[in-house]
Automatic annotation (TrEMBL):
Major localisation: cytoplasm
Any one of the GO CC terms: cytoplasm
Location in or out of the cell: Cytoplasm
One MF annotation (Gene Ontology) recorded for this entry: rRNA (cytosine-N4-)-methyltransferase activity
Organism encoding this protein: Candidatus Roizmanbacteria bacterium CG_4_8_14_3_um_filter_36_10
Binding site for S-adenosyl-L-methionine: 30-32, 47, 69, 90, 97
This protein's name: Ribosomal RNA small subunit methyltransferase H
Protein family (similarity comment): Belongs to the methyltransferase superfamily. RsmH family.
Amino acid sequence: MHNPVLLKEAVDGLQVIKDGRYIDATFGEGGHTVEILKRGGKVLGIDLDERQIFNEREKLRLKLVQGNFKDIEEIGRKNNFFPVDGILLDLGLSMNQIENSGRGFSYHRLKEPLDMRIDLSQSVKASDLVNSLSVDELYETLAKYSEELNSRPVAQNIVFVRRLKRIETVGELIKIIDKAIGKSDRRVYQRIFQALRIVVNQELENLKKGLAGASMILKRNGRLVVITFHSLEDRIVKNFIRDNQLKQINKRVVRGENTIKFERSAKLRIISFN
Ligand SMILES: C[S@@+](CC[C@H](N)C(=O)[O-])C[C@H]1O[C@@H](n2cnc3c(N)ncnc32)[C@H](O)[C@@H]1O
């Protein structure tokens, strides 16, 4: 069963009013949307992964669009969700995508291809990056987006191994990492996979553009709720609040439940546009 992260906290943060307009900019499996609908709101659901959208049907008070939240202003205006009362960004991927999409998002799925595209119409896959970037480019990419201390040896071993054979699967990359660091360490896998996924999907640029777009279509006193899953994302949200002199409603950041694996790293910020 799908358990939306910080469901109550996120939807409370939106302060849903009857017939108010809300954009769930990361629709996923619709968990947060269902709760907004229950509380009387109208929802425009956006997801970059067309399979997430096609699994669900539009219903009364719910409109669904396949798109990138970096274009939220345009998508909102086009679909008559302008101005809006609230916007939710629950970043990253859903558990179902990670476990069942077959796109190599999980380091456990050794046989899967190193794809990592959320939007399948996009051309560059993770395997294209690991097979084409120079050792310095790989090092810089991994270090910047994973903050992993072993980025240099991992980059070097990728370039060494691919001289003989293209790197195509999750399992091949895991072996390369193990050899580079001299042991198996899932935290290193997690960080290296995070870096590749961020670059393949341009996740940080999307987030910056999405926040800027959200500020163009939110009503005065409208609410923006953002759930992040790692420090690079959270830093962008904090800087956005500071640079635009916005008000964060929750004095302390709300954290995900420590006992739930998927929620552990979640941080929620509720932002008001005065
Ligand atoms: C954590 S899940 C959202 C789960 C959702 N709140 C729920 O309750 O089911 C994040 C979703 O955002 C989507 N996504 C990631 N980047 C996106 C982007 N730039 N634009 C739109 N959707 C995006 C993913 O495909 C995924 O379905």
